[in-house]
Amino acid sequence: MTSEAVTPETRAAGRAKRKPLPVWVHFLIALALVAVLRNFVVQSFYVPSGSMIPTLEIGDRVVVSKLDNTFERGDIVVFDGTDTFGGGASQRWEGTFGKVASGIAGIFGINLGEKDYVKRIIGVGGDHLVVGEDGTLTINGKAVNEPYLAEGVKSSDYPFDVTVPEGKLFMMGDNREQSADSRAHLGDPGGGMIPESDVIGSPVLRYWPLGRFGTMGDSAHEPSLAELPAGSAS
């Protein structure tokens, strides 16, 4: 029995026999990678308003990480506020066409009727939040210093006294005078609180504008709030 030696020429011939994958296969692989990344890893968001000034400016574009689903007081998060802050999904996506379009978009982690917001978590389940006439915020009886607010800005221009139910979050923007947050929805069903399950993730990188490019770092987290004693829901 004889054996034929493998030469560079025969290896090249073997490679030539293997046909390259069609373009559409590469396209489907790319779409699958995009769907996985968007659904489970990261997602890009545009900041349309000034409710988070000075931490986030109008027009900022940020990358939000979905890898960590544990959040604390003081964390900035992006959340789906469709059913809480947004008044419900648009009817334009409820018909046959809307359902088909929503189904296709859903593969890529896009909810066509979703209304997303970016705010800071001020209260978690069990917390007792109070703002008196002087505008000072207390959490579970402890007065809070909020270093992320602009100089001279009070915690709130109008008083409130709420207890956050378990599994819910009380959200406020850093630009308190221009933020329609949980305070603006205290009289709505749910009392302005959002379910923890509606949190999409926390911003980790600002990539636009280029002059403000960089990681969010400590600006997206305020440890002094997280370190406050836990409350007990009533």
From TrEMBL:
The record's listing under InterPro entries reads: LexA/Signal_pep-like_sf, Pept_S26A_signal_pept_1, Pept_S26A_signal_pept_1_CS, Pept_S26A_signal_pept_1_Lys-AS, Pept_S26A_signal_pept_1_Ser-AS, Peptidase_S26
Q: Recorded E.C. number(s)?
A: 3.4.21.89
GO function terms (MF aspect): serine-type endopeptidase activity; signal peptidase activity
Q: Where in the cell is it found?
A: Cell membrane; Membrane
Transmembrane region positions? 21-41
Q: Which CDD domains match?
A: S26_SPase_I (cd06530)
Q: Which GO terms describe its cellular component?
A: plasma membrane
SUPFAM superfamilies listed in its UniProt record: LexA/Signal peptidase (SSF51306)
Domain of life according to the entry: Bacteria
* Coiled-coil residues: none
Tell me the active site. S51, K119
Q: Which residue range or ranges hold the Peptidase S26 domain?
A: 26-208
Task: Classify the protein's membrane topology as the record does.
Answer: Single-pass type II membrane protein
Stored Pfam families: Peptidase_S26
Top-level EC class, please? hydrolase
Q: Which UniProt keywords apply?
A: Hydrolase, Membrane, Protease, Transmembrane, Transmembrane helix
Q: Which family does it belong to?
A: Belongs to the peptidase S26 family.
Name it: Signal peptidase I
The organism encoding this protein is Nostocoides australiense Ben110
